[in-house]
């Protein structure tokens, strides 16, 4: 770890961020902080302003207003030293070079002061069998793994992942999650945008939900949404009538104990907590209804 680089204070601070394209406002005054070592998800429907926000943080896009600090610097004035501390997996890169996986990674490793071991990274993204294959001959999902490998080869302090697992098969996604957990344990700060809500729930400490360029909720992933939206549901099949019954309750254990006392063991019993996807859909639906009104 390159602890000499590490400063104090948040990894990312965003305040009143705005971005307009002509008369269209894509990001409309959003603010949040990301602590060092945190994994933070940016969620929101297509066109919400996630990529715009992330690209401003990466120094790839000019903002129209607001304050931004990333690893203690304004990305507008990015230096090479600052860039070396950041890893980026863009939404669409699709590396398609004529070089092999190993050659490409070795080349990029040489550009950083403290790179990861090339073999270790190839194994972490599951490309051991393809390391001598030219990138243009890989499948789409395999190329995406090369993108991820290139994002982490420089041992970044802060890693941006914009829809990193699009096109991954289920096994590759699980493998990728393990890689992210390892990076997180090593202290890497991670900013993740994804439409896979299970991925966000698995990996993130906190999440922000953006819709129409505005921040509609932010917090630990298990505390997003209204208290009412998070009430668990008990579902079971009634022995007498064979009907499926449901009850929402804040005390599922007590409720089930009552059921058992009265009717014996309930058939097909489930206690279901609303998933991040359920909560997210409610939040975005409410924001869209408000915007339409
Ligand atoms: N260069 C541009 N010129 C004009 N409008 C743009 C430009 N880039 C983005 N936009 C618009 O800004 C809005 C936000 O786009 P952005 O790419 O940030 O959304 P997103 O949340 O990342 O969406 P997705 O989930 O589809 O990736 C969209 O309405 C988009 O059409």
Automatic annotation (TrEMBL):
<dbReference type="GO" id="GO:0005524">
    <property type="term" value="F:ATP binding"/>
</dbReference>
<protein>
    <submittedName>
        <fullName>ABC-2 type transport system ATP-binding protein</fullName>
    </submittedName>
</protein>
<dbReference type="InterPro" id="IPR003593">
    <property type="entry name" value="AAA+_ATPase"/>
</dbReference>
<keyword id="KW-0472">Membrane</keyword>
<keyword id="KW-0813">Transport</keyword>
<dbReference type="InterPro" id="IPR017871">
    <property type="entry name" value="ABC_transporter-like_CS"/>
</dbReference>
<dbReference type="GO" id="GO:0005886">
    <property type="term" value="C:plasma membrane"/>
</dbReference>
<dbReference type="GO" id="GO:0046677">
    <property type="term" value="P:response to antibiotic"/>
</dbReference>
<feature type="domain" description="ABC transporter">
    <location>
        <begin position="12"/>
        <end position="237"/>
    </location>
</feature>
<dbReference type="InterPro" id="IPR050763">
    <property type="entry name" value="ABC_transporter_ATP-binding"/>
</dbReference>
<keyword id="KW-1278">Translocase</keyword>
<dbReference type="InterPro" id="IPR003439">
    <property type="entry name" value="ABC_transporter-like_ATP-bd"/>
</dbReference>
<dbReference type="Pfam" id="PF00005">
    <property type="entry name" value="ABC_tran"/>
</dbReference>
<keyword id="KW-0547">Nucleotide-binding</keyword>
<keyword id="KW-0067">ATP-binding</keyword>
<dbReference type="GO" id="GO:0016887">
    <property type="term" value="F:ATP hydrolysis activity"/>
</dbReference>
<dbReference type="InterPro" id="IPR027417">
    <property type="entry name" value="P-loop_NTPase"/>
</dbReference>
<keyword id="KW-0046">Antibiotic resistance</keyword>
<keyword id="KW-1003">Cell membrane</keyword>
